[in-house]
């Protein structure tokens, strides 16, 4: 569905307020074995063949999964987006905010708005969320690994497989160093140094950006596969999984998928006749439950309302959707800080994570997408109720802002986000076009413990701002006024939720009014309800789901490390299950 220009404009502001996950790294990984990346329209001219595995979604999990399976089997990887290579808005840290806010039909980022009124984004590019996030790399906690029931030895083999290829240690930026010192002075201790591990206290994590600011993504991991066995199609939008429901069959069996190419032409890719061949859905927490529904797996009444033939009634598909709420506070500084994304994190015992970003408000491009943050200073568009905002008002404000001194936009962000969360919602189809976003509800802060954690996080940021380290950075000689920075945030255009601008003394209300996303949404295909422990879809044969849609909570401070590891983990698990020692992995 097309977004209005007003929403487009507001979304660009949020992109600059919120900053995704960041990653780590050690050594460079050669892309010489990267398989050819072909347009989906080329499928018609290819020699007809069948596949051992068809992976739907070349994202954070799908790329390492496809690469691993291709070591022994013939794999078709279908990605609805384009290539990340040669796209400067994807590839370079300095363009992070521009790439994320670019909502052209062929861009790497597709915006959606939850029914809660929070503007969000999903990846639409080979490499998935690793192409549009903030790059932070931090492993899941050991308790998470135990909860999901994964083999710890295989987990500990799979994380380094990713890290050795695309993860690096950051050269810590000044704003990140200031946060480190501020966290320790505020009592978020001890300092755990540079580590991938999820441990309480303050640490520096890894990054998928190298020393030049170049981004290394999950797409790079395809080079670890067998290019002779791996076919990658771009701009391939999978419309549905095809099932064969013959009489006498205990379960409907997947036989292939239907997909549309970049020209709108329909194609069908087929599995071979081997009973172990599978469709593996790795389309992300929005795309995977959406595809199951479009394929006839889900609540039967919902399917019938869209005239979708019911393959299997399962009331849990699309349920239990969750998004970790984030609240971000802008900190004005004396001089422009260097650009940085997340490198330092404070992991509190209360289940609150503190991170930071800086330097994305000072370029001519940034000024366009940074329009909400200085609301209390310059009294612009956000003083108008969301439903009364018009394109004309937005353009008028943007033009006015171009004439403001850039010094007004000097500063960085400190953000808090919560573990879990405990608040959950649901996903439902709006129509049967896979290219359109479904309706998603996250019910932010509906669970009281989430709200309590948010308040704790804001109070932690207040303690950080009162430390000597941040007093030195203040744009005012008298340091930071918490009331002032809260007012600046509550009046900014960060979402479409009505504001309570006279109630900034209530931190609970502040949390609700200024909630934004950190793009860590998950759920919709939970283990035990939609898939089994091996992630095979319950009630049918030949389909698995391998991505964050199976999670009941987001892993660690930032999920990308765990999701990339997950792709490798399940690829190895499947190979060993079929071949034993002959798998060679």
From TrEMBL:
<feature type="binding site">
    <location>
        <begin position="559"/>
        <end position="560"/>
    </location>
    <ligand>
        <name>FAD</name>
    </ligand>
</feature>
<keyword id="KW-0285">Flavoprotein</keyword>
<dbReference type="Pfam" id="PF00732">
    <property type="entry name" value="GMC_oxred_N"/>
</dbReference>
<feature type="binding site">
    <location>
        <begin position="79"/>
        <end position="80"/>
    </location>
    <ligand>
        <name>FAD</name>
    </ligand>
</feature>
<keyword id="KW-1015">Disulfide bond</keyword>
<feature type="binding site">
    <location>
        <position position="238"/>
    </location>
    <ligand>
        <name>FAD</name>
    </ligand>
</feature>
<dbReference type="GO" id="GO:0050660">
    <property type="term" value="F:flavin adenine dinucleotide binding"/>
</dbReference>
<feature type="domain" description="Glucose-methanol-choline oxidoreductase N-terminal">
    <location>
        <begin position="284"/>
        <end position="298"/>
    </location>
</feature>
<feature type="binding site">
    <location>
        <position position="125"/>
    </location>
    <ligand>
        <name>FAD</name>
    </ligand>
</feature>
<dbReference type="InterPro" id="IPR012132">
    <property type="entry name" value="GMC_OxRdtase"/>
</dbReference>
<feature type="signal peptide">
    <location>
        <begin position="1"/>
        <end position="25"/>
    </location>
</feature>
<comment type="similarity">
    <text>Belongs to the GMC oxidoreductase family.</text>
</comment>
<keyword id="KW-0732">Signal</keyword>
<dbReference type="InterPro" id="IPR051871">
    <property type="entry name" value="GMC_Oxidoreductase-Related"/>
</dbReference>
<dbReference type="InterPro" id="IPR036188">
    <property type="entry name" value="FAD/NAD-bd_sf"/>
</dbReference>
<dbReference type="Pfam" id="PF05199">
    <property type="entry name" value="GMC_oxred_C"/>
</dbReference>
<keyword id="KW-0274">FAD</keyword>
<dbReference type="InterPro" id="IPR007867">
    <property type="entry name" value="GMC_OxRtase_C"/>
</dbReference>
<feature type="domain" description="Glucose-methanol-choline oxidoreductase N-terminal">
    <location>
        <begin position="123"/>
        <end position="146"/>
    </location>
</feature>
<dbReference type="GO" id="GO:0016614">
    <property type="term" value="F:oxidoreductase activity, acting on CH-OH group of donors"/>
</dbReference>
<feature type="binding site">
    <location>
        <begin position="519"/>
        <end position="520"/>
    </location>
    <ligand>
        <name>FAD</name>
    </ligand>
</feature>
<feature type="disulfide bond">
    <location>
        <begin position="454"/>
        <end position="511"/>
    </location>
</feature>
<dbReference type="InterPro" id="IPR000172">
    <property type="entry name" value="GMC_OxRdtase_N"/>
</dbReference>
<protein>
    <recommendedName>
        <fullName>Glucose-methanol-choline oxidoreductase N-terminal domain-containing protein</fullName>
    </recommendedName>
</protein>
<feature type="binding site">
    <location>
        <position position="548"/>
    </location>
    <ligand>
        <name>FAD</name>
    </ligand>
</feature>
């Amino acid at each position: 569905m097309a977004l209005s220009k007003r929403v487009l404009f507001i979304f660009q502001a949020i992109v600059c307020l919120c900053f995704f996950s960041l990653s780590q790294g050690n050594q460079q990984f050669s892309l010489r074995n990267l398989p050819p990346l072909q347009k989906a329209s080329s499928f018609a001219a290819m020699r007809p063949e069948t596949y051992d595995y068809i992976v739907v979604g070349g994202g954070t999990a799908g790329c390492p999964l496809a690469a691993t399976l291709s070591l022994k089997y013939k794999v078709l990887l279908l990605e609805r987006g384009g290539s990340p290579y040669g796209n400067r808005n994807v590839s370079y840290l300095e363009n992070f905010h521009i790439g994320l806010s670019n909502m052209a039909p062929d861009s790497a980022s597709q915006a959606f708005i939850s029914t809660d009124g929070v503007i969000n984004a999903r990846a639409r590019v080979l490499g998935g969320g690793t192409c549009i996030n903030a790059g932070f790399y931090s492993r899941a906690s050991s308790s998470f690994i135990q909860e999901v029931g994964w083999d710890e030895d295989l987990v500990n083999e799979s994380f380094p497989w990713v890290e050795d290829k695309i993860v690096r240690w950051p050269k810590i930026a000044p704003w990140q160093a200031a946060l480190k010192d501020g966290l320790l002075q505020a009592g978020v201790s001890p300092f755990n140094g540079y580590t991938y591990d999820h441990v309480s206290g303050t640490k520096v994590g890894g990054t998928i950006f190298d020393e030049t600011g170049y981004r290394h993504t999950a797409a790079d991991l395809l080079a670890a596969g067998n290019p002779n066995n791996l076919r990658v199609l771009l701009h391939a939008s999978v419309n549905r999984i095809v099932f064969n429901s013959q009489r006498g069959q205990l379960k409907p069996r997947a036989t292939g998928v239907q997909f549309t190419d970049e020209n709108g032409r329909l194609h069908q890719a087929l599995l071979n006749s081997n009973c172990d061949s599978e469709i593996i859905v790795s389309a992300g927490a929005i795309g995977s439950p959406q595809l199951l529904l479009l394929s006839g797996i889900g609540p039967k009444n919902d399917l019938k309302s869209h005239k979708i033939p019911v393959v299997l009634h399962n009331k849990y598909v699309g349920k239990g959707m969750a998004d970790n709420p984030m609240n971000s506070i802008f900190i004005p500084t004396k001089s422009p800080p260097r650009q940085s994304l997340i490198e330092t994190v404070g992991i509190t015992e209360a289940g609150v994570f503190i991170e930071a970003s800086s330097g994305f408000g000072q370029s001519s491009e940034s000024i366009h997408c940074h329009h909400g943050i200085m609301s209390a200073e310059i009294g612009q568009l956000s003083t108008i109720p969301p439903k009364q905002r018009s394109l004309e008002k937005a353009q008028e404000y943007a033009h006015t802002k171009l004439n403001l001194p850039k010094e007004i936009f000097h500063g960085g962000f400190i953000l808090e986000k919560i573990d879990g969360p405990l608040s959950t919602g649901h996903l439902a189809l709006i129509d049967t076009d896979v290219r359109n976003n479904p309706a998603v509800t996250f019910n932010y802060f509906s669970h009281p413990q989430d709200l309590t954690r948010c308040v704790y996080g804001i109070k932690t940021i207040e303690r950080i701002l009162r430390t000597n380290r941040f007093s030195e950075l203040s744009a005012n000689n008298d340091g930071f006024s918490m009331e002032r920075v809260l007012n600046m945030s509550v009046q900014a255009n960060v979402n479409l939720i009505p504001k309570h601008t006279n109630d900034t003394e209530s931190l609970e209300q502040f949390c609700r009014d200024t909630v934004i996303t950190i793009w860590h949404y998950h759920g919709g295909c939970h283990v035990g309800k939609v898939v089994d422990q091996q992630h095979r879809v319950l009630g049918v044969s030949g389909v698995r789901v391998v991505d964050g849609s199976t999670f009941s909570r987001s892993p660690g401070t930032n999920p990308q490390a765990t999701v990339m590891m997950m792709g490798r983990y399940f690829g190895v698990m499947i190979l060993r299950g079929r071949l034993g020692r002959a798998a060679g992995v």
